[in-house]
Amino acid sequence: MISSWRRRRAERRAAKKPDLELIVPNHFLCPISLELMKDPVTLSTGATYDRESIERWIEAGNTTCPITNQILKNLEPVPNHAIRKLIQNWCVENKSYGVERVPTPRTPVTSYQVTEILSRIDDAEQRQDYDKCKRLVCKMKETAKESDRNRRCIVACGASRVLTATFDAFSRKGNFVTENVALLEEILSCMMLITPLLDDETSRINLSTSHSLRTVVWFMRFGNLSGRRNAVLVLRAILSSDQDRVDRVVEIEGALEGLMQLIKEPICPTATKASLLAMYYLVTPSKSHLESNKKATAMRLTEMGLVPMLLELIVDSEKSTCEKALGVLHGICSYGDEEIREKVVENALTIPVLVKKLLRVSDAATEFSVSILAKVVLGIADEERRGKAVVEALELGAFQKVLLLLQIGCDEITREKVTELLKVMNVYRNKVECIDSSDFKHLKRPF
Predict the structure, then answer these.
(1) Are 245 and 293 in contact (CB under 8 A)?
(2) DSSP 108
(3) Are 170 and 184 in contact (CB under 8 A)?
(4) How far is 143 from 132, CA to CA, in rounded Å?
């Protein structure tokens, strides 16, 4: 009797329980992802897909329709508003099942629309129409902000060439500080939304003229916070693309001071890293550039007080910033100039910071630290002063760390420097007491 009552109760509950299984109509599903379409678009073959899926298919280099395998006459998909409205209505009807309504997507910009805007910007630049040019650049910037897809379309249409040419043209016109500063600031901001910024030689040439570089440096020194950030990012891109442009930047009045100011008074991590990278390109020796010019730049930066700022930055910065600061310090120490090395080694933080960063931050930071130690310590001509520097490094545990680095393994260049350091430090080991090995207890060894 009890079992029959339980059975009847279970049957009543089953009758009240709603059917939770919801079947999505097949024509609402994307043929590629097999998921509910959020932004249905139709190709020239008549097949409908979700925009994200079909654009990935086309960007992968495919020129055929996935369903029909026909050659696509046009790679620009057309929004299917009818299917989208049907999907939205179906979502509303099935709200009780937990289905959320698909939002109405923004229609992305087409290559034709981008080309039209760029053509009008070019025309306004030719006629020196300041107001129209600024209005069109602002429109381009807002379009780029809407989606990654819009940014990719803008880049593919050659926006970089047009924007850099416009920037150069209005940098040449009169006194840009009083006449064109607002337009130039908008162009800088728009260029930062486009990646890669300097995707062709024409863009690099446009931004590397003396007028353009002078304008970029002005924004880096006197612009607002976003303007200074954008300017140093542009400067970093210019220097990374071609080392032959280093001299042009150094010759501009206030360029080095502007970079120094961004490190001394940081406005954001991105700007700090960009200024460090720009300095790295300015001082690091390269085969395609005269060493004497970069040596003079390294000397100027050292006299301006860069070394103490770098050391303070290395002490408490995160991994990426620390690596870049060590890279700049390594570039400064790469020249066999006794005066530069004197200024580096006489700072009380130099040896403690370099020893501290060994085997702690990253492989790159360790390699930079070893190389700087070798250049600074071994480069001291006076034997007594060199001995004091070596003893200080030994007291901080440099011998144990360098020896462990040799045992763990490193590249050939670092191995040579490690061997040189060990030879010198071994001579002075008897003057130093053994240190506590607790400094290595958290070290993860790969063997």
Answers:
(1) no
(2) P
(3) yes
(4) 17
Structure tokens at 378: 């071994």
Distance CA 112, CA 41 (A): 18
User: The whole model's pTM is what?
Assistant: 0.77
Q: Which of 173, 174, 248 is nearest to 204 (CA)?
A: 248
Per-residue confidence of the chain (447 residues) as pLDDT tens digits? 556 656 666 666 555 445 557 888 999 999 999 999 999 999 989 999 999 899 889 888 898 999 999 998 888 888 999 999 999 999 998 888 888 888 888 888 888 899 999 999 999 999 888 899 999 999 999 999 888 888 888 988 889 899 999 999 998 876 766 678 889 999 999 988 886 666 677 787 888 888 899 999 999 999 899 999 999 998 988 888 777 778 788 888 889 999 999 999 999 999 999 999 999 998 887 765 556 778 888 888 888 889 899 999 998 889 999 999 999 999 888 876 677 777 888 888 888 888 888 888 888 888 888 888 888 887 776 778 878 888 888 888 888 888 888 888 778 888 888 888 888 888 877 766 544 444 444 444 443
C-alpha–C-alpha distance, residues 421 and 262, integer Å = 35
Quick one: tokens of 255? 């360029």
Angle at 65 between CA 147 and CA 83, to 5 degrees: 60
**Cα–Cα distance list, 402 to 142, 313, 344, 358, 390 (Å):** 53, 23, 21, 8, 13
Distance (Å, whole) CA 344 – CA 327? 14
* Residues 6+ away with beta carbon under 8 Å from 298: 283, 331, 332, 334, 335, 337, 340
The residue length of the chain stands at 447
Could you tell me which of 210, 214, 203 has the C-alpha nearest to residue 176? 214
The residue type of 133 is: C
Structure token digits, residue 402: 């360098």
Q: Beta strand pairing status for 78-79 and 48-50?
A: unpaired
Q: In what order do the strands lie in the sheet with 78-79?
A: 48-50, 40-42, 78-79
Question: Is the bond leading into 308 cis (omega within 30 degrees of zero)?
Answer: no
Q: What distance in Å separates the CA atoms of residue 281 and residue 145, rounded to the nearest whole number?
A: 30
